[in-house]
Amino acid sequence: MTSPIDIEGGGTSVVVDGEPEPTKKPEEQQLVGRSPGQLMWIRFKRDRAGVISACVVIFFFAVGLAAPLISKAYGKNPYTVYADERPELFDSAGVPLQPNGGISGEFWFGLEPGNGYDVFTKLLFGIRNSLMISLAVTVATVVTGILLGVAAGYLGGRTDYWISRVIDFLLAFPAQLFFIASMPVVVSLFVSPRDETPVYVRVVALIAVQWFLGWMSLGRILRGTTLALREREFIEAAKVSGASPRRIIRKEILPNVVTPILVQSTYMLPNFVTAEAGLSFLGVGIVEPTPDWGQMFSKASTELVMQNDITYMFFPGISMIIFIVAFNLLGDSVRDAFDPKTAR
Question: Degrees (nearest 5) of the Cα angle 168, 169, 171?
Fold first, then answer.
């Protein structure tokens, strides 16, 4: 025999064999399992430094993509030589007459000594060009590292031997010296030294040279990870079921190497940004009048600018420092979100 009785706090309880069975409250929720991606996202959102760094990185990429629109709204472009169009703004040496490099309501970041380019738009397009080149290099190196690293780790044998020897050989190259020495050689393959080099040729050369020596670290990491994965039970089960190596790599291996790929990518891109800026600084990368981050540093190091307008270095310098620091912090946060047991 059962009978309902009142319980404290509202609701009723049904008595079964003399023992009340409490009614579940509506606010009680069932526990729902979360995927590894959801857990990673929850951990990442708790990292305040990672979230702020991600916002800073997104801001820089948004500014780079929107550079033409911002320039149009601003009413200026990075190619106008104001030293010729408005000589009253400069002295006889080509230095802006107004203090702090000519910073004013008309020219927000001032004017470049010498040619008189607008610094604000030149920085916008310099960020755009540097980030797009570095992003292309990162994508190319990640794809190459995945293909060769996973292939070496899973196939083993001679494939692993030859890919590993290629990696060892390329790692022996001094990267920065190779970049500097090979850029003119690569450019000369497309354009005669007597002709002016188009911008797209320099861009392709920058991407190719950095990609050539940029994929090995990721390839070696993925090789080691794949060597460990191929001995796991689920890989053996896939083999027994008759799955082809291509399917095993695509369905079983690649989903389990996403973590090192993402983490290494967040470290590689800022390295490529600084490498590309260094090449342009040395005069073997992007050259005037095409804007570039490193080219602005090169201009700031000239005697004319250093003696007359030390503020010219401030805007490209502080912006690159903020971007590199934010991206490195983002890489740390992504690593900790994927592997919370990793100590900083």
Answer: 65
Q: Which helix (H) or strand (E) holds 14?
A: strand 12-16
Residue 315's contacts (CB-CB under 8 Å, 6 or more residues apart) are: 109, 119, 120, 123
The DSSP 8-state label assigned to residue 290 in this structure reads S
pLDDT in tens, 209-263: 899 888 998 999 999 999 888 888 888 888 888 888 888 888 888 888 888 888 8
Instruction: Report how far Cα 156 is from the mean position of its chain's Cα atoms.
Output: 31
φ, ψ of residue 13 in degrees (nearest 5): -135, 145
150, 249 Cβ separation under 8 angstroms:
yes
Nearest in space to 45 (alpha carbons), one of 344, 337, 340, 338: 337
What pLDDT digit, counting tens, does each position of 94-114 carry? 888 887 888 888 888 888 888
Check residue 18 and give left, alpha or beta (phi > 0: left; psi -120 to 50: alpha). left
How far apart CA 276 and CA 270 sit, in angstroms, is 10
Output the DSSP codes for 229-282.
HTTSHHHHHHHHTT--HHHHIIIIIGGGSHHHHHHHHHHHHHHHHHHHHHHHHT
How do 4-6 and 19-22 pair as beta strands? unpaired
What tokens appear for 85 in the block?
């169009």
φ, ψ dihedrals at 231, nearest 5°:
-95, 0
What distance in Å separates the CA atoms of residue 50 and residue 55, rounded to the nearest whole number?
A: 9
Q: What is the DSSP letter of 117?
A: -
Q: What DSSP character marks residue 118?
A: B
Residue whose C-alpha is closest to residue 320's, from 343, 284, 301, 292: 292
Q: Is 86 helix (H, G, I), strand (E, B) or coil?
A: coil
Overall residue count recorded for the chain in this entry: 344
Give the predicted TM-score (pTM) of the model. Answer: 0.81
| CA 253/CA 251 separation, integer angstroms | 6
For helices 48-65 and 67-74, give the axis angle rounded to 10 degrees.
Answer: 60
Distance CA 93, CA 86 (A): 14
Instruction: Kindly state the greatest CA–CA separation across the chain.
Output: 107
Crossing angle, helix 258-281 and helix 199-212, to 10 degrees?
130
**How far is it, in rounded angstroms, from Cα 69 to Cα 67?**
5
